Amino acid sequence: MLPRGNRINRGDEFRAVMRRGRRVASDRIVVHARQLDDGPARMGFVVGKMVGNAVTRNRVRRRLRELGRHALPALPEHTGVVVRALPPSAEASWTQLSEDFASLLQRSGAAS
Questions:
Q1: In the structure, what pLDDT confidence band is assigned to residue 97 with cuts at 50, 70 and 90?
Q2: From CA 81, how far away is CA 13, in angstroms rounded?
Q3: Phi/psi at 86 (5° precision)
């Protein structure tokens, strides 16, 4: 679980990162990254109904949060990252998701 101060949980923050941030994608996930005005690095996750039923969506969300928790120390201050799951993420293995996650964070410029 991400620490409370490192979570994006307001709709306006999600919209700001997704609309004005840099977007990079794989077949399984999309990462939006943007510099924020202040505060620590923050992450948010979007897993829509196209991914699957509630059980499947929650499993994907838990996996992405765990990947985000491990990636958080590598993010610079004032960085906002939103990770959106695509339908193929439901069948992806842990290894596939972690490789996509790390690669997309690098490509977005969020992680050093």
A1: very high
A2: 10
A3: -105, 160
Taking residues 75-96, what's their average pLDDT? Answer: 95
Report DSSP state, residue 76: P
pTM: 0.91
CB 45 within 8 A of CB 61: yes
Mean pLDDT (the chain) is: 93
Q: Which two tokens stand for residue 60?
A: 């994907």
Domain boundaries, the chain: 4-106
Report yes or no: 51 and 60 within 8 Å, Cβ to Cβ: yes
Element (H, E) at 43: strand 42-47
State both tokens at 32.
Answer: 């939006």
pLDDT at 112 over 70: no
Instruction: Dump pLDDT digits (tens) for 48-77.
Output: 999 999 999 999 999 999 999 999 998 989
Pure H helices in 27-75:
54-71
4-106, CATH topology level: Ribosomal Protein S5; domain 2 (3.30.230)
Contact yes or no for 73/58 (Cβ under 8 A): no
